[in-house]
Amino acid sequence: MTNSTPSLEKNSIPNNQDCFLDIQNLIVDYPTSDGNVRAVNNVSLSLQKGEVLGLVGESGCGKSTIGFSILGLLKDGIIRSGQIVFAGRDLVKMSEEDIQRLRGSDISMVFQASQNALNPLQKVSNHFIETLKAHNRWNDNSWDAIKNLLNRLEISESRLEDYPFQFSGGMQQRIVIALTFLLNPKLLIADEPTTALDVLVQARLLKLLKELIKEFNLTVIYITHDLGVVAEITHRVAIMYAGNIVEVGDTFTIFERPAHPYTQALISAIPNVKAESKKKMSFIPGRPPDLRNPPKGCCFADRCPFMISLCQENEPKSISLPSHTNIGHYVKCLKYDDKYSNRFE
Ligand SMILES: Nc1ncnc2c1ncn2[C@@H]1O[C@H](COP(=O)(O)OP(=O)(O)OP(=O)(O)O)[C@@H](O)[C@H]1O
Ligand SMILES: [Mg+2]
Prior knowledge:
The chain has 9 helices and 12 strands. With 345 residues, the protein is an alpha/beta fold. The strands form 2 sheets. Strands 6-7-8-3-9-10-12-11 form an 8-stranded mixed beta sheet, sandwiched between helices. It has a 4-stranded antiparallel beta sheet with strand order 2-1-4-5, covered by helices on one side. It has a domain at 49-63 and 95-251: P-loop containing nucleotide triphosphate hydrolases (Rossmann fold), CATH 3.40.50. The two termini are 37 Å apart. Strand 4 and strand 5 (89-90) form a beta hairpin. Helix 5 (169-182) runs parallel beside helix 6 (199-215). Helix content is 26%, strand content 23%. Residues 30, 32, 37, 39, 57, 59-65, 76, 225, 291 line the site of adenosine-5'-triphosphate (ATP).
């Protein structure tokens, strides 16, 4: 998907006011010998049931850290504050035992290149049997469910007795996805699940994923740096920069009317391979800030073409912009704050 302009259509947004996952003021640090890395800085985000939310941003901005925080899988990181409410319970406060029960069955994560998670010494069939048995879900209908899922993911059931190395990378990734869907999770965190694959395989898998998400009525956080994938599969997009969510809105609005200067730069950096476009591909000069020593004001100020001195002093708060959808459009930029907007010319 990376090399083409996304074919953007208005993915219909679930009209559902129920809050399914509610992240409030999440702060996550990685303490290191060189100092404290603030990977997630005061992030608030909520998802409705059946919604597919794209979490987008360049490498190191904190996307996976949010995913690991939800699943209680932060290895070296510490949740300093905030809450993550799922099905009425705060996951941050949950015991390891309780969260382990949710993992895999209620909340599942597909990792980037997660095909490496397949055990090379186990036949594919054993992966399915063990996954179901580990969650006490094995029953008389299990083989039918497994075969049905494999079929949906275009893997012949005759390959069940093969070993992972006998499959291509794309097929292995589809086996991992079948394993994930088998437990019928309610919330799926998909962390760059197609990135390691070539463009055509990626497009096919994305189509299958989109169909399965709809069929299983899954709520999904889709982590990616690929805006083409975002346009294809998400209802809503959250743009992350240096640990902060700087803009959230429905996918159509984010592509058509991006408000944050960082989002605008990301959108204009999408390569357009169509011959009629003579638009020069742009890039964003500079580098993200050192998360061991985050800037005082706006995290994007140093790279922002609209920056004024106020931006380096004042941390922008979330501003609600006019929106044609029920899910709204929010941006963190002083340009949109009535208190400061007249200072930008
Ligand atoms: N174990 C760790 N120890 C110290 N710092 C870490 C650790 N894991 C992640 N970080 C830092 O936290 C920040 C966020 O990392 P994270 O993996 O969440 O980013 P990401 O947006 O998922 O990046 P990518 O797109 O490359 O996967 C980065 O600056 C990273 O260097
Ligand atoms: Mg990551």
